[in-house]
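2 proteins. here.
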Amino acid sequence: MNIVFMGTPFFCIPTLEELWRDYNVKAVVCQPDRKAHRGHKVFPCPVKNFAVSKGISVLQPEKVRKNDQFLQKLKKYEPDIIVVIAYGQILPKSVLDVARLGCINLHASLLPKYRGASPIQFSIMNGDKKTGVTSMMMNTKMDEGDILLQHEMDISEVDVVGTLHDKLAQLSARCAVETIEGLRDKTIEPKMQDHESATYTRLIKKEDGRVKWDQDAKKVFDHYRAMTPWPGFFTYFEDKYIKIIECHKGQGSGRPGEILKTENVIEIACMDGSIIVERLQMAGKKALDTKSFLNGNSWMKKGIVLN
């Protein structure tokens, strides 16, 4: 079974590794190397790093639409199937038609719920108890293809985006292999999505991590979980940036954003209930447990209000 894999971020790696182990991965297609981090050095994406380490051919077109040179290179690999995860571009019909068995996409939600860029974050932020991975036949629209397989999993009350991301990445690998085998053996019947019940997510931005203390403690905590580790969950006191790294729900009451307690832990009032902070970080400083933080930041006192 000849496979071309298209994807870019770390989420892809468990699936790509499984495909490399079980099939003939002829090439990977990923986004071009980009500048990242301080110093603006150019870094390859995780998928490219993996491919290079295994001797797999790498294609990195700036765009795939109206790119005949890329299309001809893709056809030379004669793929039986193209597997796509978080590639970063919508594929034209000319690319979708290259593979003998078609082009499949793995998406980290139970479609048609949470189409778009940030399904993991929004499932946590909305307090969902379950999520999963969907494989679908791709078409020229975003996440609207016919469903092939779905694997469901529970969301733990303490899952943050980082932990749920890793669990779903592993589940995606299993779903990908089962989908490929089902298409090969003709045991999967594609099922049209219920487009009327579809919901959509947008790209998460850095400013989305700012705490909204005028919500109940559960919503604030779910917001924290959805923003951890990136973009981070942060608040301010006057002009001081404070990133909350670890916290849990409490039962305290007060004005939204008010510091209720500063004895070993920091307790902050929400509209209903409170958040108890265990670890935090100031801009440009290292992360500290609350006891260490309080020893070095005397301004953090009971009664002040964060915003």
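next one coming up
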Amino acid sequence: MLLQEMNKEHRPDPPSPSGKESEDGAFYIGWMPKAPKSFAKRIKRVLLILFPVALIIAYLLSTSQKKFSTANFEYGKLTEVKGIYYDNPVPLLKVFDKNNLSMTILLVGYGKHGAETAIMELEKEKGVSLNGKEVTMKGTLIYGDRKTLLQVDKNDNPIVNIGDESTIQLQQKDLGIQTIRGEIVDPKCYFGVMKPGEGKVHRDCAIRCILGGIPPVLHVQNEKGESNYYLIVGPTGEKINDTVQDIVAEPVSIEARVVQQDDWIILYTGKENIKRISYAQLKDPNAKVIACASVMKY
């Protein structure tokens, strides 16, 4: 008796009068030539929902990605640049255009080296100090985001001409003691030689460049994504490269005496005034950002 009741419970429903399974109970098997209508309708409804969702996700992902760097390195091309050379606090060349607008070009050496050694050897070779003189140099231009650098290689005989002492001085303005947050980068790679030239992926290369004498730069970005750059030197303008090597490519807070020198801002600071911070602190909308850039385009 019990067995009969169990068999009755498991007995399949009788076929519909038409001899076909009802659409509500349709079941699609992959080898069937055509899916049941109800199954196909359900899939279409799902696809109509998923397609615009996929488009929205794709758009959000693409717009949230960091933009590719537009920095440039004119590898293999030498350009002559005429300006006034200054060695304090780092090697710089102040150049003017036909409208008498100026920009300050940061000088770097070949490879992972600063320009000081090459300039000192050239001064010794020619028996003259270049500081404060009108000089025509040739080198490889590096430029991006309103900043320009010139790679000077002693093997390229970079000194084309040495003129007279200039009466034009670097324009300086003391902006007082301030605390600024950002990431320390090496400017040679950041402004064109490497892409990317910042962050953890570039950390080892940046450390070697900075230890080789390339001046460290603090990259600061505001909440709108606009960037500004600050040269970092010691309290009296001496090199601070060894001091910052352990915190390159990390978020830091720097308390410094801030000086605007033409179109660069210089941070005069010491080891005790540079501190690691979190990425959350780095994105603080109240963090200071001081803008300074040349209006001249080289």
